[in-house]
Design brief:
The protein is mainly α and 122 residues long. The chain has seven helices and three strands. The chain has a three-stranded antiparallel beta sheet with strand order 1-3-2. A hairpin with a 5-residue loop joins β2 and β3 (79-84). The longest helix is centred in the C-terminal third of the chain and has 16 residues, at 106-121.
């Protein structure tokens, strides 16, 4: 994933943070890993809308960014666990705040597409 050089640009802390947790799934993965170490299949079951390919891609990106730790066990069949790194844990208040905001605005958010369609039809 291409990253900008945020260290040399003033006023871009929010951009840098959003770049790390951007997209539909990274924040959701981080949210689920707050409950502790999980295997790939557990994460997949918790996010039925994500494809295996996308989950793999997002987990790799989070690992590359140092937000999660991937541990592979030399077993048959192979076992891979994912957990938040120390840096990932430091995002806990951010993820919790996003969750709380979403819960407060869930009704408006879930109705937004219908409201736009009704408005366009009028």
């Amino acid at each position: 994933m291409k990253r900008s050089n945020f260290a040399h640009r003033p006023g871009c802390a929010v951009e840098a943070t959003l770049d790390l947790i951007d997209g539909k799934w990274k924040g959701v993965i981080l949210f689920h890993l707050q409950n502790g170490t999980q295997r790939f299949g557990e994460l997949r079951r918790r996010m039925p809308g994500i494809t295996q390919r996308m989950l793999t891609k997002q987990l790799r990106a989070l690992e590359d960014d140092g937000l999660i730790i991937r541990k592979v066990y030399a077993e048959v069949p192979p076992r891979v666990d994912y957990r938040l790194s120390e840096i990932g844990e430091s995002l806990r208040p951010v993820i919790d705040t996003l969750k709380a905001w979403g819960e407060r605005h869930r009704e408006r958010l879930s109705c937004a597409p219908e409201a736009k369609l009704a408005e366009a039809a009028a």
